[in-house]
């Protein structure tokens, strides 16, 4: 039974996954965001008190 002898198919399986992952990782690393996120300035605004003219 060929599954008990991992010689030929395991080498093909391992080499194909290594090739696949190197191609995939190079394509993923070339991807760049179009809009780089920028930190927003955190400024706390002082709220104005409400004016209740009828009280």
UniProtKB/TrEMBL annotation:
Record-given protein name: ATP synthase complex subunit 8
Pfam family, one: ATP-synt_8
One annotated Gene Ontology cellular component of this protein: proton-transporting ATP synthase complex
Membrane-spanning residues: 6-25
GO biological process: proton motive force-driven ATP synthesis
Similarity comment: family membership: Belongs to the ATPase protein 8 family.
Record key words, sorted: ATP synthesis, CF(0), Hydrogen ion transport, Ion transport, Membrane, Mitochondrion, Transmembrane, Transmembrane helix, Transport
Entry keyword annotation includes Nucleotide-binding: no
Name of the coding gene: ATP8
PANTHER family: ATP SYNTHASE PROTEIN 8 (PTHR39937)
Cell compartments where the protein resides: Mitochondrion membrane
Protein's membrane topology: Single-pass membrane protein
GO MF entries: proton transmembrane transporter activity
Coiled-coil positions: none
Domain of life: Eukaryota
Entry annotated with the keyword Ion transport: yes
């Amino acid at each position: 039974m060929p599954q008990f002898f991992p010689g030929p198919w395991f080498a093909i399986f391992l080499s194909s996954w290594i090739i696949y992952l190197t191609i995939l990782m190079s394509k993923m690393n070339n991807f760049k965001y179009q809009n780089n996120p920028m930190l927003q300035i955190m400024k706390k605004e002082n709220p104005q008190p409400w004016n209740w003219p009828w009280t």
